[in-house]
Amino acid sequence: MRGAGLRADSAAAPEGCPAPDGGRAVDILSGFHDISLAALAVVAAVAFIASLIGGVAGYGTGALMPLVLVPIVGAAPIVPIIAISALFNNTSRMSAFLRYVDWRRAAIVTVCASPTCVVGAWGYAHLTGAGAAFVIGAMLIASVPLRRVLRRRDVKFGDGGLALGAVCYGFVVGGTAGSGVILLSLLLASGVGSAGVIATDAAISIVIGIVKVSVFGVAGVIDAQVVAFALLIGIVALPGAFLARAFVERMPIHVHTAILDGVVMVGGAFLIWRALYG
Fold it and tell me: Which neighbouring-strand residues pair with 5?
């Protein structure tokens, strides 16, 4: 577990042992130290379920994983863990839906969101653990009414509106988990529909994920625990997108979306309570 801040302290090499070239070697398995097999099994199960939901609805992985990860590892490493694991998940999702990607709109969002994503990620890297929990919880709660308002008002805009929205999205996604609903809403409002939203969202998220991981690496918040949990979640989630593709046109999305909204609201409230009183 970490201290109050997100920045990992540098570990000195054992006496008599030379430090490895290029800095400290990360022992991935040490990231699971003091974590029970039961807890790891729960993380793996939720990761698989979240990947199925994300593959069908277009969002859900970043919203659900904090709810199971925070009680196990705390709030501080959540966004870096999800940022790395999402590279696996989104690569799998884009591969499954590759022919539906809207490359023009993906380029607009990527170019406009990347700079502000750097700012958001750098700010998150310097939050305390309580601050991180509050930000994540607030974002999760806000994502539910935001999605519903945008859908109810049938908001539509062109490339200029998409670019402006992407600037705001970049800042939010850089420092939070569960903000995928914003990108989903932007793509829907710009005219991308059906499987195209899932595919384009994945293509954009791969690039944004690389930007976030790079910033977290420079800021020194990626340690063995972050890498270990990210790999566990990412590898378990790989088959989810291909299974989800079979359900995209069959499953009544409104049913599991309503359930997800409830889970996200309750989980977000718990994280805020934990930040204020825990």
Answer: 128
- Using CA atoms, how far apart are residues 239 and 143, in angstroms rounded to an integer? 26
Q: Using CA atoms, how far apart are residues 30 and 32, in angstroms rounded to an integer?
A: 5
The three-class DSSP label of residue 5 is strand
Q: What is the mean pLDDT of residues 178-204?
A: 80
Measuring CA to CA, which residue among 87, 28, 82, 90 is closest to residue 54? 90
Domain layout of the chain by residue ranges: 33-277
Is the separation of the CB atoms in 216 and 222 below 8 Å? Answer: yes
How far, CA to CA in Å, does 103 sit from each of 3, 73, 87, 93, 243? Answer: 42, 37, 18, 15, 24
Q: What is the pTM of this model?
A: 0.71
Nearest CA to 129 out of 81, 70, 82 is that of: 70
Q: Please compute the mean of the pLDDT values over residues 232-240 and round it to a whole number.
A: 86
The phi, psi pair for 215, rounded to 5°, reads: -65, -45
CB neighbours (10 Å) of residue 115? 13
Which two tokens mark 240? 């989810």
Question: Which runs of consecutive H residues, i.e. helices, occur in 74-194?
Answer: 78-96, 103-125, 129-152, 159-175, 180-189
